[in-house]
Specification:
CATH class: Mainly Beta
Oligomer: single chain
Number of strands: 9
Shape: globular
Helix content: 10-25%
Radius of gyration: 17 Å
Number of domains: 1
Order of helices and strands: HHHEEEEEEEHEE
Strand content: 35-45%
Distance between the termini: 45 Å
Length: 180
Amino acid sequence: MNTVENVMAEVRCAWGPLSSQLVADCQRQLDRLVNAKVSEQWLATLHLEGAAQHELYRDPEHGFVLLAHTEAEGLYRPPHDHGRGWVIYAVQQGAIEMGTYARIEDEDGKPRLVKRGSTVICAGQTQLYLPGDIHDTRCVAGPALLFRFTERDLKREDKEARRLTRYVQQAGDWVPEARG
């Protein structure tokens, strides 16, 4: 078995309702993943191909998904949340700056974001976002290879349930994107 298979087997064994222990177990496994030897065929292939997105694993029973993303330096993904889902990002190569935001309402009840701060996640590090957390990402040292572990299929969650919120900038403020 390779590192991906070993890591996903350990996550399957630990799986259960969201808890501090589950998050710690998953982060520990993703730490193993980002420290895999580049000589492993699956990782060498990811580096060689440089695909924007590659699905590495999808659990048929529990529904969690592991994706690999290669991002060019400067690539920016505006603020968003992950709906009901939680996510762990793990950087294998390069560095990603991740900003965090709070959603507030102005006097008129209109929502907008206030930036809390940002952290640079370097190779070998992970970052967790729980349901409702809002963040953006910017590749600051690339190309970056990062893994995104999601406890559910976020594309399906967004497409079917429309539960993810993306934000756009209007008049200098980040506001929820209008969805049609």
